[in-house]
Request: fold
Amino acid sequence: MSKEGSIDAPIRHPINFEHPDFLDPKKLDDEMRRAFDICHGCRRCFNLCDSFPKLFDMIDESENEDVESLKSEQFEPVVDACTLCDMCFMTKCPYVPPHDFDLDFPHLMLRYRTAQKKLNKLPAVPAQLAQIDRNGKIGVMLSSLVNWASNIKNIFFRKILELVSGIDMRVKLPTYNSETFTNYFKKNNIPNIDLTIHKVEGALAWTDYEGEGKFFIEIEESLNHKKFIITMCHEFIHVRQFLSGVEVSELSAYHYEEKIAEQFYNEELRRNGSLLNLNED
Ligand code: SF4
Ligand code: SF4
Reply:
């Protein structure tokens, strides 16, 4: 008997990019039609995004009002409208695994886009926007200019951007930083920490300095939440001591560990609006 995924958490299978059928045009076309047919019968996602209304209208207006009446070229607007937000999979769909229908709509959209890219069929603008590494380098180099031009208040440039790229001028776009993480880490001497959580013999944790800013930290796996954070902070004090070239002192680590753990929790509160429970066991 099939089991619907709306009661239990959906099971997400990894995308099998290596499977010989993954980019097979006929198999992909068949799978698109199978999924679209199920969705057309269900329609629960009609108000989640633009993909589903486009799909339902297209099928309703087709010759026989069914998926078989669609031409494969008609799939593209449905895929283009998907922002991969994952809402249909995570919140709505009763046919996600473990249901026999094994429906994962967002993954199917990704599969289609992968096929488009491999066959050089990605539309020009998305193909350029997808050049994340190149765009990122330009964005960081010209961050002030790019952020000014893409600001939602810059009506003139946002209108041009909308005409060229199709990105709605009302959408708030992310801004670029003037410095990459890699440069920031280099400049600020941030340590490179290899953290392992497992059974530790004879202590709650150990820190080994391996030279050139590299540390190996082991933490006992059985610690509760609160003790884990405090122990982590304790080990970070040792990291700081190593980096500053001062004598590694257990006494000062014990003295400061709770204060640093408290700062950590306050930062959590500032960023997330809720506090992890310090007294949790
Ligand atoms: S993942 Fe795509 S199809 Fe699903 S709700 Fe989000 S935008 Fe729509
Ligand atoms: S994704 Fe699932 S819930 Fe949404 S319309 Fe398709 S079958 Fe229905």
Summary: Residues 250-272 form the longest helix (23 residues). The pocket of iron/sulfur cluster (ligand 2) is lined by residues 38-39, 42-45, 52, 88, 92-93, 95, 103, 105 (CB under 6 Å). The beta strands are 192-198, 205-211, 214-220.
